[in-house]
Design goal:
It is built from 7 helices and 9 strands. It is of the alpha/beta class. The strands form 2 sheets. It has a 5-stranded parallel β-sheet, with helices on both faces. Strands 4-3-6-5 form a 4-stranded mixed β-sheet. Helix 1 packs across helix 7. It is globular.
Length: 185
């Protein structure tokens, strides 16, 4: 695929998606990273329209019913998250490269509606490295870690569905590879 404008990035928990995306944005401020909508309440320090677009259930329902979401999901059985279609389409129409950092199910939804997008899987250098990163961040209890690792196995097994796999062994190299795939470098 030659320099697709819409790139979808997926990877398992603790692989470093947020770090890679943040560094890519610093190197390439022209990249538009979508802001997800969510029905959950803002956490301290989160800004509407920056971290998430905070909406109520009725607004989320209306977006889904009108086709206003590229993808969406119910997460942890409690709150819905999704990618609003309009900002993505407006950025693409303006000629900006757009990056969606979403989960596996969301990527599958985007593939169904925008099959000519580029789908990139961010992978750890090894399963052991992923487990070490997850345990090392110390933000989840043992039960939550087990749940996240179970999901990570499913995601890793699906890596063959993607157009490219970028190994995040070194953040600078992973960012450079993602930028190259996006036609930025």
């Amino acid at each position: 695929m030659e320099n697709p404008q819409l790139t979808v990035l997926v990877g398992p928990t603790a692989v470093g998606k947020g770090t890679v995306v943040a560094q890519l944005r610093r190197r390439h401020p022209e990249v538009v990273v979508s802001v997800s909508a969510t029905t959950r309440r803002p956490r301290p320090g989160e800004v509407d329209g920056v971290h998430y677009r905070f909406v109520d259930d009725d607004e989320f329902d209306a977006l889904v019913a009108s086709g206003g979401m590229l993808e969406w999901a119910l997460v942890h059985g409690a709150h819905r998250y999704g990618t609003p279609r309009r900002p993505v389409e407006e950025a693409l129409e303006a000629g900006s490269p757009v990056l969606l950092e979403i989960d596996l199910d969301g990527a599958r939804q985007v593939r169904a509606s925008r099959p000519h997008s580029q789908f990139v899987f961010l992978a750890p250098p090894s399963w052991e490295a992923l487990v070490e990163r997850l345990v090392g961040r110390g933000t989840e209890d043992e039960e939550e870690r087990a749940r996240r690792l179970e999901t990570a196995r499913i995601e890793m097994d699906a890596s063959g569905e993607f157009d490219a796999i970028v190994i995040n062994d070194d953040v600078d190299e992973a960012v450079a590879e993602l930028a190259r795939l996006m036609g930025l470098e």
